[in-house]
Amino acid sequence: MSYNIETKCVQSGYMPGNGEPRQIPIYQSTTFKYNSSDEMGRLFDLEEAGYFYTRLQNPTNDLVAARICDMEGGAAGMLTSSGQAANFFAVFNICEAGDHFISASSIYGGTYNLFGVTMKKMGIECTFVDQTLSYEELIRYFRPNTKCVFGETLTNPTVNVLDIEKFAKLAHDHGVPLIVDNTFATPVNLRPFEFGADIVTHSTTKYLDGHGSAVGGAIVDSGNFDWMAHKEKFPGLCTPDASYHGITYAEKFGKGAYITKATAQLMRDFGCIQSPQNAYYLNLGLESLAVRMKQHCSNGLKVAQYLKQHEKIAWVKYPGLPDDPEYKMAQKYMPGGTCGVLCFGVKGSREDANRFMDALKLVTIETHVADSHTCLLHPASHTHRQLSDEQLKEAGVAPDLIRFSCGLESAEDIIHDLEQALAAV
Ligand SMILES: *Cc1c(COP(=O)(O)O)cnc(C)c1O
Asked: 10 Å Cβ neighbour count for 391?
């Protein structure tokens, strides 16, 4: 039977046997011992599942990945050292030099740079598109060598809602998978596979850990995309891998093919593994995720409502506000709430905004977002400062945009702090 998400947060992926530890143990070991040379050999041939070196796989990580996988309703999952590594692996696992992919332009600044600058140096080209364009308008961006489509379910920092069904149809009509970054919504509020996405990524650094304690990432595959039906597009999955004695992932591993390939090739060669200790912290966060998301969302809505009626506030973006243009779409994909992040602009000059930010006492200025402590950031002067004005505009980031992340404190106290800081403007 399938449990509800609140139960999955606490129980999925690990059921201790008789006399075994109740909590997921930390396997703080680089390597694993075998009785015979033959057994070890079979692991290296991918003939048997097992652990031999933590650069590729570790039991603690796999238990936590299995939990996230079950929460998303996926077929296989893995942890990575960061959200950046997760998004890089997710795309690079199916794209190589000479390939092209399409990404929504309204995405996290780090991902924008990874796709537009660093992966370009590897010979992989990304076209950024406005995610509000129609299906017919978006079709124009596909090329014969397009290998996937990417977007964020709730964008960072602009909290726009991705129309997952539109993007899934677009991708599938062109024989490629849809990869979505579900960091802000979390599997508690949104499970993208239910709407046709094929692969989900996370920066677990945000809500999943939720306490600002461990950087990490995750990739979950739905197992639904039929690689063999589009064999010519995905030679890495559908033709023999010489580095593993000629196995063909899509044939040998079925629904586990994509994650097995990412582990066996990309983790082996790049080694962006999450430390087992961080996986343990992440898991503690997962156990309370459903409870915490309720408070993040409730605080988000109260703060958005407060700012919306304030005379010194120019605009507010929060898809959970009933008069937000994306409210209906947010209700469709995230009926239980969106997240605790919202954006707004302060009326007046850049100096006014800075005066406001500096006057806050409880709310802190941080590069972080989506954890237990309420914080804010001005992307144009912080996370997105590498981007030109043109790129900022393309990413939908207004120069006056302040990203505000509601933590788990009392909404009354957060609003009090806003009140006194706005009085200083
Ligand atoms: C933070 C973030 C990332 C990058 O994750 P790191 O863990 O910082 O590497 C990617 N996508 C989104 C939506 C994020 O918020």
From this structure: 17
- CA 348 – ligand 1 centroid, Å: 31
- Report the 10 Å Cβ neighbour count for 320: 22
Q: Which helix (DSSP H) or strand (DSSP E) does residue 351 occupy? A: helix 350-359
Ligand 1, residues 160, 206, 377, 403: which to mutate, most atoms within 8 A of Cβ? 206
Q: Is the pLDDT of residue 1 over 70?
A: no
The H or E element spanning position 403 is strand 402-405
Topology of the domain comprising 5-284: Aspartate Aminotransferase; domain 2 (3.40.640)
| pLDDT digit string, tens, across residues 48-99 | 889 999 999 999 999 999 999 999 999 999 999 999 999 999 999 999 999 9
Position 367 pLDDT exceeds 90? no
Predicted TM-score (pTM) of this structure? 0.97
- Whose C-alpha lies nearest to ligand 1, atom 4? 83
Angle between helices 276-287 and 289-308 (to 10 degrees): 70
pLDDT higher than threshold 80 for residue 145: yes
Residue nearest to atom 7 of ligand 1 (CA): 83
pLDDT digits (tens, 9 = 90+) for 191-237: 999 999 999 999 999 999 999 999 999 999 999 999 999 999 999 99
> What class does CATH assign to 290-422?
alpha beta
10 within 8 A of 287, measured Cβ to Cβ: yes
Cα distances from 105 to residues 5, 175, 209, 223, 329, in angstroms, run 31, 21, 26, 26, 19
Can you give the residue ranges of every domain in the chain?
5-284, 290-422
Pairing of strands 199-203, 217-221: antiparallel
